[in-house]
Amino acid sequence: MTDRKKPAKDYSIYFQPPSYRDAKRRGKEDVRVHYDFKIADDLKSMGKGKFYHIQTYGCQMNEHDSEMMMGMLEEMGYTWTDNREEADVILLNTCAVRENAEDRVFGELGHLKSLKKEKPDLILGVCGCMSQEEGVVNRILTRHQYVDLIFGTHNIHRLPELLREAVFAKEMVVEVWSKEGDIIENLPKKRAGLKAWVNIMYGCDKFCTYCIVPYTRGKERSRRPADVIAEVRELARQGYKEITLLGQNVNAYGKDFEDIDYRFADLMADIQKIDIPRVRFTTSHPRDFDDKLIEVLARGGNMVEHIHLPVQSGSNEILKKMSRKYTRESYLELVRKIKEAIPNVVLTTDIIVGFPGETDAQFEETMSLVREAEFASAFTFIYSPREGTPAAKMADDVPMEVKKERLNRLNELVAELSLKDNMKLSGQTVEVLVEGVSKNNPEFLSGRTRTNKLVHFKGPASLTGQFIDVKITEVQTWLFKGEIAAVHALEA
Ligand code: 5AD
Ligand code: SF4
């Protein structure tokens, strides 16, 4: 960062703002794994009688990071509150992937300003991917000076120390490491419910031209297999019913190991042997999705028949401009192989419309690919320029009206395909993990199939956490209704 205006104030030793240039440097140096994380004894009573609130935006990785922050705060004696007015610490764990997510955070900061005025001792912190962005940190420094603490994605484990610093400092505490640090094991985690997230790797080296993630999350670093497996075994022992393995690009797992040849397929094969009923993973990059992985997934067992495989576009020209490093043809070939090996697989995807310069014809190629691949569902987005990424500098002559219209047409197609896929289950009996009383309709219980489809049915709330068989009686675009056919025997 050379041209950034220096903040007027003299910030503490913790003033360490982010730099994209440093973030982009991918060193060969080894990533060290630390097993000795500890919260200093004198910090363990800091939060006694005090309340905290964390607002989380964005992906599951962020949700899981929040669970770790919750774990640390509770070890410091803080208690969770839903009521922000009662909180002594409020953290916004932010997402940088699209502009509208960022706008929401800045809107929220505006609201919190008045709370901070009423309660000057409140510690207001911003963390997550937005804090890794140079522009965001500058904007907070100049326009939101009531923020007490900014820290990044690489130094979450520093939260207890940084919080102490923020409580005692007169100035804003900013600590954002541009370059990824080591892997910190044994952070406390406060998990909820029946499902657990498990990080298997951090960062992304793909540098798709539209994406900010390789800058905000650093280079690819895989957790050691033994550490992941020990965590999954422990979750099984604790009775979790489902885990989701997390990484920005899980298919690159293990590529960074220099001492062992152990990849994602090997990890999945080892996890397949662990007694946890359902295993998911997200998110996949088609480029690294290999035959060995398909073979392991095809064995089934606890590996569910749902694969999320972001395609982003169906046009080879756009895929090239996105630097996705595969073609429409190779993607469809991969889909064919997956469907052949796992006949009842449910495929979902991510799609960006309105990439700079996307023509009508190129968009139509996305529409036809979606039809050919027969996705059961898709997350669809209008391209959002991210400062510092190569695509943000590309000429874009596509009017927003056209982009919106494309998104609508795509969403209609996705809904049509979802209904078509759901119809396959009409009258069938499916295994459902009961998640509890439905939030939208308290008359019903809500649960999910192995393929992550939502099912509503009537039954006692005491079934929560159990696997049951449900006969599908009504098929909708995004939901099934059904009747309980059988309750599985409780596992020992
Ligand atoms: N604009 C729009 N969508 C984006 N995504 C990532 N970056 C952008 C961007 N700049 C989408 C991709 C990715 C998903 C998590 O978010 O589809 O798979
Ligand atoms: Fe972003 Fe591409 Fe990495 Fe996914 S694979 S996080 S889209 S750079």
UniProtKB/TrEMBL annotation:
Gene3D superfamilies the record matches: Methylthiotransferase, N-terminal domain, tm_1862 like domain
Catalytic reaction annotation: N(6)-dimethylallyladenosine(37) in tRNA + (sulfur carrier)-SH + AH2 + 2 S-adenosyl-L-methionine = 2-methylsulfanyl-N(6)-dimethylallyladenosine(37) in tRNA + (sulfur carrier)-H + 5'-deoxyadenosine + L-methionine + A + S-adenosyl-L-homocysteine + 2 H(+)
Sites where the protein binds [4Fe-4S] cluster 1: C59, C95, C129
Residues of the Radical SAM core domain: 190-420
UniProt-recorded Gene Ontology molecular function terms: 4 iron, 4 sulfur cluster binding; metal ion binding; tRNA-2-methylthio-N(6)-dimethylallyladenosine(37) synthase activity
All residue ranges annotated as the MTTase N-terminal domain in the record: 50-168
Entries under CDD domains matching the protein: Radical_SAM
Enzyme Commission no: 2.8.4.3
Binding site for [4Fe-4S] cluster 2: C204, C208, C211
Subcellular location(s) per record: Cytoplasm
EC class (word): transferase
GO cellular component: cytosol
Keyword list, A-Z: 4Fe-4S, Cytoplasm, Iron, Iron-sulfur, Metal-binding, S-adenosyl-L-methionine, Transferase, tRNA processing
SUPFAM superfamilies: Radical SAM enzymes (SSF102114)
Cofactor(s) named in the record: [4Fe-4S] cluster
Note on how the cofactor is bound: Binds 2 [4Fe-4S] clusters. One cluster is coordinated with 3 cysteines and an exchangeable S-adenosyl-L-methionine.
Subunit structure: Monomer.
HAMAP family: tRNA_metthiotr_MiaB (MF_01864)
Function, as annotated: Catalyzes the methylthiolation of N6-(dimethylallyl)adenosine (i(6)A), leading to the formation of 2-methylthio-N6-(dimethylallyl)adenosine (ms(2)i(6)A) at position 37 in tRNAs that read codons beginning with uridine.
Family: Belongs to the methylthiotransferase family. MiaB subfamily.
Protein's name in the database: tRNA-2-methylthio-N(6)-dimethylallyladenosine synthase
Species this protein is from: Insulibacter thermoxylanivorax
Gene from which this protein is expressed: miaB
